[in-house]
Amino acid sequence: MLPAESERATRYASRREIFGWAMFDFANQAYTLLIITVVFGELFTTVIVGEHSGSYRLANFLWSLALAISYLLVVVTAPLCGAVMDHCAAKKRFLFLSYAATVASTALLYFVAPGYVVLGLALIIVSNYAYSMGESFIAAFLPELGPPAALGKISGFGWALGYIGGLFAAGFTLLVLGDTTAENFARIRFVGPFAAAFFLVAAIPTFAWLKERGTPRPASASYRRIARQRVLATFRDLRHFKDLSVFLVSLLFSMAGVYIIIAFAFIYGAQVIGWEAGVRNIMFIIVQITAAAGAVGFGALQDRLGGKLTYQLTLVLWVAAIIAIWATPTLTDWINARFAWDWQAQYVFLVVGCLAGASLGSSQSASRTLVGLFSPRDKAAEFFGFWGLANKLAGVLGIVLLGGLQVLVGLKASILLCAALFIVAMLICTRVNEARGRAAAQQW
Fold this sequence. Notes:
Blueprint: H1 5-11, H2 15-38, H3 40-53, H4 56-88, H5 91-107, H6 117-139, H7 142-145, H8 151-176, H9 185-188, H10 191-202, H11 204-209, H12 223-237, H13 242-273, H14 277-305, H15 307-326, H16 328-339, H17 345-373, H18 380-409, H19 411-414, H20 416-429, H21 434-443
Helix pairs in contact: 2-6, 2-8, 2-10, 2-13, 3-4, 4-6, 4-12, 4-18, 5-6, 5-10, 6-18, 8-14, 8-17, 13-17, 13-18, 13-20, 14-15, 14-17, 15-17, 15-20, 16-17
C-alpha cells in the first residue's frame, strides 16, 4: 500500500540538503582533476618517474599499477562497507572517514620529489582508495533525496556542480602554481596540499546538511560477520534484480573506458599530441564546461527518455569521441589540406575535447541514476557498494589493459581499446529492461 502524498514528501530531501549532498561532488573533484587527471598524473609520469628513469612507458605503467591496486582494494571492501552502512545506518560516518583519509594522504603528496617513486605510489594508492570509497558512500544517499522521476536531475546537478568545483580548483592551480615541469617543481608540488585543503573546506556543507535517514538494526554480531552475511544475502537477492545485475556488467565495460580517459587523457595530450602548457590549460577549461553541460543536459533528458536510452546515447558519444582522439593527427592533416590552413594537432584536439567532455559528464550521471532507480531504499548502500565494485573493477580492468598495451604498441594505438569497451557495454545494455528493473526495486 502506497503512503499518502504528504507522507511521501517528508521522506525526501529539502533543496538545502540536496545542495549539501551535491557539494561533496563539488569538493572531491579537486582530487580527481588535480591529482589523477590534470596535474599530479602528468607530474608523476614526466618528472617524478619519467625524467628520473628515462622511460615514459615505465612511468605510465607504474601510474596505471598504482591506480589499479587502489581500485582493487575498493572491489574487495566496498560491498562489505555498504552492508555495514545499511545495517547500522552509518553512511554519513563512513563518508566522513573516507573524506578525512583522502584529505590527509593527499596533503602528504607534497613530499613526493623526483625519484621518490615508492612514496608516490604508496600515497596515490591510499588517497585514491579513500577517495573512491567516498564516491560509493555519497552515491548511496541518492535514492533518499527525491522521487524516482527526479533522480536524473538530482544526479546531473551533483555531477555538474562537481565539474564547476573542478574548474575552480584546477583553474587556480594552473594559474598560480604553474606548469608541471622539473624547473617549476618547487611550486607545483603544492598541488597535493591545495587539493586537500579545497576538499576539506568545500565538503563542510555536506556534513552540516546531509541527513542519515536509515534506522540502525541491532548489532547481534561483529561488523565483519554482519557484512559477510549481508553481502552473501545481497548476492542471493540479485536474482530478484536481474536488470540491475545485467546493467552492472555493462557498467563494468563502460567505466573501464572512462577510467582510462580520466587517468590518461592529459598524459596523452602531453606525450602524443605534444601540446603546449597554454593549450593544456584551455583543454581543461573546455572539458569542465562541456562535462557540466553534459551532466545537466542528459540528466534532464534522462527523466524524459528513460535511463537506459540516455545511458546508451552517452556510449555512442564516447565511441565518436575516442575515434576522434585517435584520429586527431590524421584529421589535422586532412583539414589543412582541404582548407589550406595551418592548424596544429593540439588545436584540433581542443575541438575533440568538447565531445569527450560532454560524454564524460553525461555517462557518469546516467549510470549513477540507473543504479538508484534499480535499488530499494533499504539496500541502497549495499547496491551502491556493488556499483562501486563494478566501477573500480572496471578501473582495474581498463587501466591494467591500457598500461600493458601501451608498453607494446604505444599510447596512441592503445586508446582505441576504449572504443571497443564502450561498444561491448552498449551490446550488454540491450538486455536491460528499465521498467522491469524499477518495478523490482519498488516491489522489494
